[in-house]
Design a protein that fits this description.
single chain; 242 residues; Jelly Rolls; Immunoglobulin-like; 2 domains; five-stranded antiparallel β-sheet; 2 helices; 19 strands; 10% helix; 49% strand; disordered N terminus
Length: 242
């Protein structure tokens, strides 16, 4: 039984965290694109999986001024949260953003070192790091990105609070489970994934009121990861259908 428990915990951790530039976020799955036709932006992935270096455009080619940007982007395979650290060097008038489906969020304008945690992303989103160059001369912006991590749960204490307030039991049966919730935030959705991370089904929890019977008798026998999302956080439970 102890060996089985260790196996379950190991598998759940491997699914919930994709540390560094590996797995779904391996550099081979990212794409570098720019809106300047002569951009010489590049990404050095020799330090992966721990670090990548994103070098912005500095071609001095005379491309039309003031709207030049280069993106290093990836399609998000699973709903969750992205965190990373950065070391940004700006010798000229560059700006460093992260972008989700074309919407920019400022990381830094002046040279800076920092980190961002728990950026929410949804399966199918296009997430990108963007270096906005303004011009294409006079020094390139360089972003060193490290400690990149994807999690299906928040890394904050809100996740632990939701987990303690929400019970899904019994943890193993033929597919009919009881769910109870004692928290104050609104529940939104329950999602089922298998151990490979493949999405199975959703259950709407918008009208959830303290207790509910969840019927998973349509699922095959096996171990599943059940992700419950509230208006403030997200948590994951393990269930066995036998």
């Amino acid at each position: 039984m102890k060996k089985l428990y260790i196996f379950i915990v190991t598998i759940a951790f491997a699914f919930s965290a994709n540390a560094q530039f590996s797995g779904d976020y391996d550099p081979a799955n990212w794409t570098l694109t720019g809106n300047g036709p002569n951009s010489d932006a590049s990404v050095d992935t020799s330090g992966a999986p721990s670090t990548i270096i994103f070098n912005g455009n500095d071609s001095d080619f005379g491309d039309p001024c003031c709207d030049l940007a280069d993106d290093y982007s990836v399609t998000v395979p699973t709903t969750g949260y992205i965190s990373f650290s950065y070391d940004w060097d700006n010798p000229d008038i560059e700006i460093f953003y992260y972008v989700i489906n074309g919407v920019e969020t400022l990381i830094s304008d002046p040279s800076d070192i920092g980190s961002l945690s728990d950026i929410p992303v949804t399966a199918g989103d296009v997430f990108a790091f963007r270096i906005f160059t303004e011009d294409d001369c006079c020094g390139r912006g360089v972003a060193i990105i490290s400690a990149f991590e994807f999690n299906i749960t928040l890394s904050t204490q809100e996740n632990n609070l939701l987990s303690s307030e929400l019970k899904l039991y019994p943890s193993s049966n033929d597919g009919v489970f009881n769910m109870s919730y004692s928290g104050n935030s609104n529940l939104k959705q329950l999602s089922v994934h298998d151990l490979s991370g493949k999405f199975i089904q959703d259950v709407d929890l918008e009208n959830f009121n303290n207790n509910k019977v969840i019927d998973f008798t349509n699922l095959s026998k096996g171990l599943y990861l059940i992700t419950i999302e509230s208006s403030k956080s997200i948590t994951t439970k393990k269930l066995v259908i036998k």
